[in-house]
User: Fold these one by one.
Assistant:
Number 1:
Amino acid sequence: MDVACCYSTGVLPFSTNANPLHPPHASCVSFFHSSLTARLSGNLHHLFAYRLQKDVSGDSRTVCVRSCKAQQSRKRPQYVPNKIDDPSYVRIFDTTLRDGEQSPGATLTSKEKLDIARQLAKLGVDIIEAGFPIASPDDLEAVRMISLEVGNNVNSEGYVPVICGLARCSKPDIDAAWEAVRHALRPRIHVFIATSGIHMKHKLRKTPEEVVETARRMVRYARSLGCQDVEFSPEDAGRSDPSFLYQILGEVIKAGATTLNIPDTVGYTLPSEFGDLIAKIKENTPGANDIIISTHCQNDLGLATANTLAGACAGARQVEVTINGIGERAGNASLEEVVMAIRCRGQEIMNGLFTGINTKQIAMASKMVTDYTGMMVQPHKAIVGANAFAHESGIHQDGMLKFKGTYEIMAPDDIGISRADESGIVLGKLSGRHALKTRLLQLGYELESKELDDVFKRFKAVAEKKKALSDEDLEALVSDEVFQPQVVWALSDLQVVCGTMGFSTATVRLLGPDGLQQFGTSVGTGPVDAAYKAIDLIVKVIPVTLLEYSLIAVTEGIDALANTRVVIRADNSPSVTHAQSGKLVQRSFSGTGAGEDVVVSSARAYVSALNKLIGSVSPAVTRQIQHIQEPTVAV
């Protein structure tokens, strides 16, 4: 039997007392008091737990360990727009598909957005901000698709996510948002207007009185369309005058807002400031007790997660986050960091806060967003980074071998990562479909039959050249076969000749949209350049600029798979309306590819990016691009 108790001399006044659910153990009481003394003396606070364990002789012994105690399962409250029955429940508002997509090069196709929305529903997020519908017809259609499918898919427990569309305080924006989300069982319109002095003067060029009137009128208009769930955000609230915030927030509550989102738009505030801002808004805004307070924190100073948690501790019951923390500039508060912090520390430090997130879906969501957006996760990223559960130091390894709690406050399994195959199966060229499927399931990949066939085909091809495939190799193959845009062109064959004795030459064969093979040959300054030029001759997209090219080895060794990422932009790339600036901006498109050969990997990535570009242009241009050309040779 294993009994655990946690005490902390952390942030007062939340947890200076012992947890009443577990009586104190004598051997830990003195340590608790000494820790409290150290805290009050200005030293860092201590968190400890004691654990009664049976040793080999059957005697109990007390072990003090760092502990991330899993929260007991608690039921998600029934959804009501402006209230939460359980005061400890925190709604998770995911804006990966809206704010996250504003990351340069992170453009997503409609299919990719729908796939991510499905995964977010598996994750259990309460609200999915599916996009900014007024940005373009494609954005509106993508949000509508998500509303129709994900927004109507009720699971056995009655859960279905709210589908939200962003809108500026203007009737065309709100009309577009409502048209996109109204098909969902739980639709929401999220309207915003800037409230800081610097924004009102230089961007809006409106007086505070005009801003208040506009906000009040547009919230009322959104409600008049039949939307019972309206969120309002005062953009740049972190730098806004608090008294003005209380005024405008009170007015939009009267107009029908059900959620007030407080954005730290430029990541300017510190946790103590932001927590105090949330507390004072709750205290001074008329009607604040009748709605939900939310946070939206940018990461410009690296404090987005800290500010979000400070806001939750101060009374916010909705937090806006993104998978992997992607977003404008330095990104947003990271969903995985916020959720796991609440899971590990919510009971002891945050007055029992909890979420409805299925944390075992975190790793899969992170991988999907990484592959679709091309935004790579840094190795030391908290929770989902490659090194998050890696231990290289000898001292750390010794501790981990003796007891994992010495250096891990959570287990990889908690977020859906399974690195070791306890069955002892090593995947190689003699492995079958069942072994591959089993290992992919252990890694969190539940593939459909056609997807498994595609991955198995690539697996066999790689296994012929590589003795054994690691988990990282398998994940790279899944990314290259499954997490790809809709195929217009597919790489069939590639042959290059290069060296120091002349120009590099590449011959490429692509499978076209009509199923016919097309050839292209070109020379270049190197094999990759020659391959890209040959591909351009076949696809014949208007001139494309390569904005970014990066290549990494998936694993160690000379036989490692190569993983390539490219970002491109065409001269006539589709333009979309930027949510904050209101200006039209050209989209860029990323693509990824994996292979045993670095040139093949590079070509796959380039074709993937071109497919995204083609899928985003108008139907007329698409037909023109897809028009079959004669085999082309260029010198």
Note: Residues 1-70, 618-635 have pLDDT under 50 and may be disordered.
Number 2:
Amino acid sequence: MCAFVIGSGVGVRTGGERRGVCVGKRVRWVERRGVVRAVVEPDQKETVKKKGVEKEADVVEEKGNGAVPPEVPLIVPKRTTFAGLVYDRLQDTGADIAQHVGRMVTKPQVKKDVKRPRLVILGSGWASHSFAKVVDAVKYEVVIVSPRNYFLFTPMLASTAVGTIEFRSIVEPIRKANEFIDYFEASCLGINIEDQVIKCESVQQLEGESNVFDIPYDYLILGVGASTNTFGIPGVEENCYFLKEIEQARELRKGVITRFERANLPSTPEEERKRLLSFVVVGGGPTGVEYAAELHDLVTEDMSKKYSKLMEYFSVSLVQRQDTILTQFDGALQQRAMDNFKQSGINVITGANVVEVTPTAILLKDGRELPQGMTLWAAGNGTQRLVQDLLHSIPEQTEARGRLIVDDWLRVRGAENVFAFGDCAAMETGALPPTAQVAGQQGAYLGRLFNRDYCLQCELPYATAKPNSNVETIGMTDLAKPFQFLSLGIMAYIGEEKSMIQFEAGENKVKLSGALTYLLWQSVYATKQVSFRSRVLVLFDWFKTKVFGRDLSQF
């Protein structure tokens, strides 16, 4: 037996044949081709040397000729530079494109008599859509279960809620992501982790009859997203609108026109007109800010031409619990957004806590009462019921705060063969922002892990096939790199054809705002559409709105 330090890891050479063993709480190791390895960061090598790992250290002999290595902390190799992470991502994207094109050209045939591992995906959002596009649905039997049979480009929901973009322009049938996947339009009622079965119910109930069925799985992937967090405040559920789905955007669009038509009636008192046209947005994040900006554009650019006598009663107020809005951005950009809203006439109320919402008013903790004719609640994310049930049923999830705790390879802690990504998951190393950018990268990453034949049941996943761009070679073991989020920046529309963009390259940030930035904002969103069809429709909608204005029809 000899011990050695190689690459960015430390190993102990033995002659055993065991794989995927976890020894103690502080060390995870794999033994493959006669080599046992524990992994540490390069800057910990000196500490390891002092512990005598490079010498013939104490090794506990096990059954046969195997051995247990000395305890060392597990730190899986990660990219430490922005350039290195970008390089990895470009390689992976190139491989994804090659696979997608190859699938379209060769049209592989699925052998029905060959049993394949079944991957069941819950949800059809960003993470699930990215996973479906990347995963090899010939190698696996892939089934998506979701009450929504389409992918929704959520960053543009605020635009659809006022008619700038049409609803169908930002949706794409989920089956188009991968022609080899299967899809069931149903809701998941529960998950039996021990038996690896989920219980589902069809969302289409003919003649009032419910259709409940079970789906067994080999691997389960949760991408159910998050709900809107009402914080238990009285009146929010009953008296507020929300903005997470197309149906909610449609209700918002209808609600605005309804209130203007109601205020326009000759029998409506003046005080009631003022209340009806008092629009309130609760939440100063991207959703709240962008909707307030889009609503103001709708009224000042289009509705003012048809309802000119009502404009004196119109107002938009943005209520934010913190002292500023768009807290994800740099302080200078936050102030620029505040100044732009002030110049536009949008009333921004910061440091305000809502304690109750009535049909006619918003009650604040400091005693103020804001009249409201329509309120959008965009104050944060909550937990889906299915996720809550899992959190309560898995003992290892007791420390979770509304999101399933997953490890560096997106495996749910305490649930074998269960994975989670997107807004319903939180990394052990710290929760990532609940954005489409994070979810999309996680979905594609997990798809590659399955495609590349990693031993995902092993404590430390290693490749059982040929190494590739997502493999870190340590000695003779190819370890799957953990997920790392590549932040390319954040964007927000702040009204009057002005946007803010904060590009990120590691520690460096480039901050842009103004009218020219709005063109860049449009370019990014147009190119990020998931199909050529959607790009054409979105561009045409912008052109149509610019030339003809937004449609104010009520139907």
Note: Confidence is low (pLDDT under 50) at residues 1-75, 467-477.
Number 3:
Amino acid sequence: MHSLPSQAMRPFSLSSPSSHSSRYLRFFPISFPVFPKSKFLNFPTKSPPLIVRNCSSVSTKTPSEFRKNRAVSEPDEKLRALRQLFSKPGVGIDAYIIPSQDAHQSEFIAECYMRRAYISGFTGSAGTAVVTKDKAALWTDGRYFLQADKQLSSSWILMRAGNLGVPTSSEWLSDVLAPGGRVGIDPFLFSADAAEELRDAIAKKNHELVFLYDTNLVDEIWKEARPKPPNKLIRVHDLKYAGLDVASKFSTLRSELVNAGSSAIVISMLDEIAWLSNLRGNDIPHSPVMYAYLIVEINKAKLFVDNSKVNPDVMEHLKSAGVELMPYDTILSEVKSLAAQGARLWLDRSSVNAAIVNTYTAACEKQYKHIEKTNKSQKNVDLNGWSTAPAGIYKASPVSLAKAIKTAAELEGMQNCHLRDAAALAQFWAWLEEEIHKDVKLTEVEVADQLLEFRSRQSGFIGTSFDTISGSGPNGAIIHYKPEPASCSIVDGNKLFLLDSGGQYVDGTTDITRTVHFGEPKAWEKECFTRVLQGHIALDQAVFPENTPGFVLDAFARSSLWKIGLDYRHGTGHGVGAALNVHEGPQSISFRYGNMTPLQKGMIVSNEPGYYEDHAFGIRIENLIVVKEADTPIRFGGIEYLGFEKLTFVPIQAKLIDLTLLSAEEITWLNDYHSQVWEKGRGPITHHGPTGLKKSFGLAIMVFTLQIEANLKGLTGLAFAGWFSPSVALEQHTATRQAVTAICAVHF
């Protein structure tokens, strides 16, 4: 993540916060580009605007074409009610922007904060809705184009962000509003950077950005139907899984504060708070975090959280770490108080919301005037090291990088939970294949539910790490597809089936995708799958010098697809938390080349190239990998070289592979991987799963191994140009096949 320029000398103030703004019990940055230029913020909950590549299966449309298949606009009561509030006293706006986020820029949010989904009907995790007095538009990225097209009513314009001819929301507002228009936002839902960039963008047409501190307009029309805020208990994350105690983490952070000339830091990202405090919550689906703010000063710390979530164990844990509890909704008043005391606050403007930053800057302005009036010296320093003249330190949060580099205990937990997860998946795939071959009709939802059942039998399982993407045939082409009971499809044994899923365990977090076919795949499907696999292998085998940012490696995963003019509309890899968010930054592997964060030892990223043909099929192969030191014979320039180590060990279906496309080295990789799958999988099957797992895991490996052998035998009559021999490849399978045969003889 880039560091932002310091604005220590009198930061700007967009507007003066209301005296009632501290009452708030509300809450990846703008989910979809509202600005003409991007800042490439940290993924995931800090995801940058997406740049969508044009693929052969995607045709670019102008905004006017997006509604061609929609009926004539129908009345929308929610939009009507929202627009009526535009002229309410104290509001007075011409447009209102509803982002996806809560007050902490979270990717996944509690149901009561799903305002954009409520107003638009679009349930994808990324998107921005903009409502004017006579129009409504929604921006989302390539992962959600098909889903949004299905879910939006005819009252909405779908803006396919990143496609040619599609304006950003700020550009669109500048065009549709008369000069001098007022654009309203809830400042708690925008990062300070996002709000400033939006303000600057719309100011070009003399439009004004209006902060509505005291009310969220969507909440006003949601009324009693709005779900209650979450209030589930917080738990202590055991030191044996964390690896570092809170005191050690605070000590490192305070050293960073001193070096930056700061007296305190405001932390608002929920996973950063959970990691730093060694606490876990249950406020948000799929993410073990709690709604809170944390202020760490040089000699004390305050956690702003609903006290009803804190049990005696957590209270004692916080007390021993020197953390004082404060009501969640007092964060703004505390920020004002710190400014009045002369605190130099460290604020990450890419994540801390505009309400907090603007409150602090306004309080600083007030303090400056007070100092000038009383003619006090700004050089005086008190016992806390605070200057009597407050000033912001605007830099990236140091917690983000510290959290991304896993401790030895965190890596051990991730390795262990992945093996238990693999055992559940082995049982699941064996079950599903058997059911499909018996011609049992199963819906995508029923399949996802059964996978959850298998996972729930594993020790330490807490829940899913995201909504399972269970997509049969054309639904697999919807990159973040979420099947619904009322509208999902039957899993068709004659079509590709994509399953992207993950689990939260007490010791780690998993995320895995496999694409399979239960019948006879078409030649084109096999070629596409094989090219995706080649990209997966290329990234897995990559060796690169230290200080290499992830975007440098992205082309490794796309190269095989590029050779025939194919591509995919998402990044190749995201960071993953340890018993935390399944998406975390600052590292990523993506074509978004603005993220200069280097990959470092101990970081975990996903390896997930894919290919998607709209209305036909989707393919993705995903493992989690950890950055490790590479043992190279030479170290040019005296620097260290890095590579990857796999965390995920689940078979890759071989019937989908066109072996004529693979090199000998790629086939060796596949053989070695399946050997590791078997060797590493035996432990959790024996010790953590029921007896039936032994049979199912053995069946899964046997099926995949025998399929590889059958495919290779079929190539015997083909002429190869001296670089590949089927017999050699078959010999490489011998050890694995013998091991599988032995276990099957015992358990079948």
Note: Residues 408-437 form the longest helix (30 residues).
Number 4:
Amino acid sequence: MNRQSELLFQQTEKDGGVDRLQTTNEKHSEARDSIVDSTTHPPNHDPEIGDVTALRTSADQDIIPPGIDPRFLRPEGVKRGLSQRHIQMIALAGAIGTGLFLGSGKSIQRAGPVGTLIGYSVIGLLVICVMLCLAELSALAPVSGAYVRHAEFFVDPALSFAIGWVAVYGPCVSVPSEWVAVSTIVRYWTDLHAGIVIAICLVASFVTNIFLIRVFGEVELVSAMLKIALIIGLILFGLIYDLGGVPGQPRLGFWYWVNPGAFGQGYLVDGSVGQFCGFFSVFVTAVYSFAGVETTSIAAAETKNPRRNIPRAAKHIFVRVFVFYILSLFVVGLIVPSDDPRLLKSTGNAAQSPFVIAAEKAGVKVLPSIINAVVITSAWSSGNHGLLQGSRSLYALALEDKAPAFFRRTSRWGIPHYCVIFQSSFMFLAYMCLNSDANTVFGWLSSLTASSTLAVWIVIGICSLRLRWAMEAQGISPKDLPYSAPLQPYLAHVVTWASSFVMLSGGFYVFVDGQWDVSDFFSSYFTIPLCFGLYFGWKLLKRTEIVPLEKVPVGTFIAIAKANPEPPLRRKKGIVGWFGRFWWD
């Protein structure tokens, strides 16, 4: 520890403060000295980026207060272009994907209206826990890559390497699967060649991600508002239809909960066991539907006032998940019977949506095309999210020297363009659908996505637990955090163990007699050996150790947060202010 750090630490101890800065310089200066020889260069100099202090003077970088080694956090070249409304709508858009519009029909057939409602509610609660844990971590350490680098600081550099490359690999398969989905959805209207549709998606997504981050934010804002408008319209339509407001149609009420029943037709086997299997299968479908919600924090370093805006977005997820997801699934369970044969069809377009089935029964002809159009935007938006997640995860790995150094370079617009180009190259996997059935490819790739999403959630839970244990070991009060999530550390336990349970049991159907399939088993469980292989491989190669609780740099991050105060939220008055509070404040 240098003399300046010693004096600052002694002062904070004398004042009864919690900024235990000695733990940071002992651990992280040693790590950075492998990159920068402090005997050759001054502490504020990096041979790749030059004067570190000069880069801390703009609004796009946190100021490192005196007493903390300026090399503790490698300066980032990204720009803070995402505002409160952007981050709120990105969180919402990430939580509403094609799974709600298309996948919910299969869930209703297998688990029934009540089973589907319970299954999505359970995963919805898990998502809320994930977001609150991630908000606490990201408010304390708003860095690019979020959980990728949180694992570096709070757990083990080897875990950072493992989850970082899993977060890179996930979008490599999920983004192409979204382009495959779009190519099948378009067939509802036209026989346009799938290759042309995929090319359009690929170019549009690349252009959105390669320029200013604000462009991405504005595009996602529009996409989210289209989704919300559709969901509100579908909920109103469903209530009107259920209550007998459609001419020539009887009042349904809860009739379909009685006949054919509240818990569906079952799955794999007959009887009550089949109904339980159907209910359990909803968990994996729901995870895929919510995949991408963690994107809110992946670009924390590109968010204006991240310590204020990211927690607000996370807290609002609670209301929006239950209003848009649970209410819409409740309504659709009232108007579509679980034994409708059309629920079993895998058309890949709006024809398999339970909302469309209800519209056809009611004689509303225009609704399927409207749903199809918004589902296309949802699928494209989900792919767009994946590209952002993969590129920023790769950028985070490069910042921690776990990926080639050239991935640290950013464009003059503040975009890690080499990372975007690398991730975009995998989008061409979508052309696999030209040689095989598109729906089969989509289902296989989406299974891979669900398992990698659960791996990310598990690491978020572990990082959150380690943060709380480190605070207890160092005598730091939760009140000193920029944002302290409620019910901690219980939320972190729920995230860790519930996500692990769903991951381990998600492929249960392959073990049922007569259901074994190698590709299904691989897609359900491939992420597990991948994570362990990456973790132990890096650990053996670099001889990394789990960070002792006493050396987790909680006090340092708190000191950085105090040195970078953020202004309070200013709400506008009148209609504009009310509109803003409803959508993104």
Note: DSSP finds 22 helices and two strands in the chain.
